């Protein structure tokens, strides 16, 4: 990313200095695209897995499910945190996603965090030689008062895969319901802001026996 930031690539007359954060995101995206291509024809994982890690007042859940590659990052930003300054307001929810063919443009809501989280996931899947449907949930707590940079996202997701054996669930939606119990927003709010949670990309088996509404103890 130092080479990109310094404008050392390309034809001389077209070279430009760019902010370091842009070059970091460009590298995350480029490496991520390569790794996504490397697992394009790989078999899917065999079961639903849930990983968790937290660092610098950020909490991450990574849910992996059998199926072709899909990825979504959902960010929950606490009131009073660095991107949600109003301490009296509610949580801000942002999300971006991609399907098996990847994205055709830049993300709209989650910026460089999207590519950093995606890279951490793709490194893990490429090492296993598998692909999966992936949901990353990031809670930015009120104690996160200053941005540390997307390296924090990348490393926290990477470390989530180094924390021992994953949790498991029968279906993707069972895993999401369980994770939602520990989130500051209810399952209905997640459904409104996440295509994967809403089930728009779910397989028919995921729907079998699924309840249309929140179960006991689930918040709206």
Question: What does this protein look like?
Answer:
The protein has 220 residues and is α+β, with helices and mostly antiparallel strands. It has one domain. Helices cover 35% and strands 19% of the residues. The protein has eight helices and six strands, in the order H-H-E-E-E-E-H-E-H-E-H-H-H-H. It has a six-stranded mixed sheet with strand order 4-3-5-2-1-6. Helix 2 (20-38) packs parallel to helix 3 (111-128) and helix 3 runs parallel beside helix 4 (150-160). The longest helix has 19 residues, at 20-38.
Any key phrases for this structure?
disordered N terminus; about 35% helix; about 220 residues; six-stranded mixed sheet
What's the pLDDT, averaged over the residues? 85
**If strands are numbered along the chain, what order do they take across the biggest sheet?**
4-3-5-2-1-6
Main beta sheet: 6 strands, mixed
List the uncertain runs: 1-10, 15-19, 210-220
Strand content: 15-25%
What structural category characterises the helix and strand content? Answer: alpha+beta
Cα separation of the termini: 43 Å
Shape: globular
Number of helices: 8
In total, how many beta strands? Answer: 6
Portion in helices: 25-40%
What's the domain count? Answer: 1
Helix/strand order, N-terminal first: HHEEEEHEHEHHHH
Radius of gyration: 18 Å
């Amino acid at each position: 990313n130092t080479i990109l930031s310094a404008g050392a690539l390309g034809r001389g007359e077209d070279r430009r200095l760019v902010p370091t954060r842009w070059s970091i995101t460009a590298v995350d995206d480029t490496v991520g695209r390569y790794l996504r291509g490397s697992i394009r024809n790989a078999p899917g994982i065999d079961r639903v897995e849930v990983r968790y890690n937290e660092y610098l007042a950020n909490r991450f859940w990574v849910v992996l499910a059998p199926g072709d590659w899909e990825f979504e990052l959902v960010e929950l930003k606490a009131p009073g945190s660095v991107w949600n300054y109003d301490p009296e307001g509610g949580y801000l929810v942002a999300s971006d996603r991609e399907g098996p063919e990847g994205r055709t443009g830049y993300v709209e809501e989650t910026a460089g965090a999207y590519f950093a989280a995606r890279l951490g996931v793709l490194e893990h899947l490429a090492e296993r030689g598998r692909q999966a449907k992936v949901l990353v949930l990031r809670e930015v707590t009120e104690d996160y008062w200053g941005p540390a940079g997307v390296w924090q996202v990348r490393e926290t997701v990477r470390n989530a895969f180094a924390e021992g054996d994953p949790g498991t669930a029968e279906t993707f939606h069972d895993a999401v319901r369980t994770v939602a119990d520990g989130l500051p927003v209810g399952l209905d709010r997640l459904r409104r802001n996440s295509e994967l949670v809403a089930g728009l990309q779910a397989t028919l088996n995921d729907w079998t026996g699924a309840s249309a509404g929140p179960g006991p103890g689930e918040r709206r």
